[in-house]
């Protein structure tokens, strides 16, 4: 039988042997791993944010709830009616010379049904004033014959298009209402990479959807806006907040519920969200909206230069030696431009506009996009490594400093309908020399034919139409069934038989 003394001696001996073995093991593993530093060596672990109380479901300062509650009522669902039409009519009614226009082969004419229906394209919009001004993307309402918006409470309004700017993909709508919830525009220049943001919109027609993410990059150019005049401005805020088809025109907001951008595009190989989305910054949105409200058209200011980002390739191409790749290289100066008059030269490197650094072409474009023709700015640049500064006065696309006025279309009434001139931009895009847009339809014979407002008439019978006056003259001679040929703003060509 073991005595108490022997028991305690045994325990002490076991403890001593255990300590020796532990120390030996530590020394063994230390020697084995010597020279292999680990991430955890000498690190102090800590949380980046701590809850101070139990009222929050996320760390304090990252409370998405209040922002979402503030923003959701001010984001609307936009539905635009767009023509979905095809060529039609029985073969005996189709003039032979129209075959080439439609590209129909023999035997195909007259086999398509009459075009009667319209499709719909949907997106989102943001109310920016309590009296009904709404900002959205141009591509959401482009070619639309009518636009309707639905509030988060399901109340619906007809919206009027005040104006649109394809160069920034921004459009301004107006509904007749008062006391609407709206969002305040923040200064997107103050947005920081890594900042939490919310995207609010109507993806896949799922109304009032809120997603969260961070700002991944600023002044991002993804070459998605391509205009006829090559004056598109891309300086997007890039985020990883989930955005899908239907979010276009919706809100990108900070945690204070302030509008910092209009969600516009996604980087995708599938047609749906693949990790990154892009928003037009509020610095551009605010300027475009102000112009559309005041003038009906955007007042675009230009430096009058061709620019590229600094890079090793540019160094090699132009035999230059850059100290850094921050800045914008002037490849060409347009004759008579604001840049030429101020003394800027090919090879100069623009570093700042109005004291703000411009490290890329997108940042320079964004800075100039906030200005109007006639505005005076300070440009800081390097010339052969030497810092310089000039004051210059920005010009318009016409090469002067005058305010551009919205063209008032000529409207002609004839045959129970009204017609107006085709804007130059639409003629250029559709590659037509003229025509007349149907502004309104009053007589039943037009309505019964299936023709829609917004249709561009290019022929009446075999008479070519280049102006609204041509329509009036042709209809005065019309007797019986007359074929009306033309196309919708989306480029689809159609003909209709109309009885006079």
Question: Could you please describe the fold and organization of this structure?
Answer:
This protein folds into 3 domains: 249 residues, Beta Barrel (Thrombin, subunit H), CATH 2.40.10.120; 89 residues, Pdz3 Domain; 89 residues, Pdz3 Domain. 20% of the residues lie in helices and 31% in strands. The protein is built from 11 helices and 25 strands. The strands form 4 sheets. Strands 19, 20, 21, 22, 23, 24 and 25 form a 7-stranded antiparallel beta sheet that branches. It is globular, with a radius of gyration of 32 Å. About 15% of the residues have low confidence.
Kindly list the characteristics that best describe this protein:
about 500 residues, Thrombin, subunit H, globular, seven-stranded antiparallel beta sheet, 25 strands, 11 helices, six-stranded antiparallel β-barrel, alpha+beta, Pdz3 Domain
Number of helices: 11
Low-confidence stretches: 20-58, 84-118
The CATH architecture of the largest domain can be given as Beta Barrel
Number of DSSP E strands = 25
Q: Name the shape in a single word.
A: globular
Domain module tally: 3
Radius of gyration: 32 Å
Category from helices, strands and their pairing: alpha+beta
CATH class of the largest domain: Mainly Beta
Mean pLDDT: 83
- The helix content, as a percent range, equals 10-25%
* Percentage of residues in DSSP E strands: 25-35%
- Kindly report the CATH topology of the largest domain: Thrombin, subunit H
Alpha-carbon distance between the two ends:
127 Å
Major β-sheet, in short? 7 strands, antiparallel
